[in-house]
Amino acid sequence: IAFVKTLERVLHKQLLTNLDIAAEEGLLDKKDGLYQFSHDRIQEAAYNMMTLHYRRLFHFSYGMALAPLAAEEGDDSLLLTAVNQLNLAGPEGVHESSQNVIVADLNLQAGKKAMEMSDFVVAFSYFDNGITFLRKKHWEEH
Hints:
Helix 4 packs antiparallel against helix 5 (76-89) and helix 6 packs antiparallel against helix 7 (120-133). This protein has a two-stranded antiparallel ribbon with strand order 1-2. By secondary structure, the protein is mainly alpha-helical. The radius of gyration is 17 Å and the shape is globular. The longest helix has 22 residues, at 52-73. The chain is built from 8 helices and 2 strands, in the order ααββαααααα.
């Protein structure tokens, strides 16, 4: 519930109420303050009901909302969560060209954190994803 409250705070949206309604309707199970889909197929159906455009939009907005909070609180776990959301959105989720460099830098930070944890495969993935966010003429412009 703490993570959901964090999301509510940074997104300025009520999420817990909707999660409780979904739990009452049997779509989610709530146990010890944790929510999870009552079946994998329900999760899959809910995700697939969204168009690719909206999936990218939501992943990107969640990632961009969480990233400053991660930096402010020095929370590596939150940074990795934010970057994972941004990477799920992909470069197509970027709205403004200035965001490309920001997301690439966040992937660089996440990659360095993964290296500190000796998880070099994950670090490579962050570095590789970060590069995909850079525009084609990035090296000429910066």
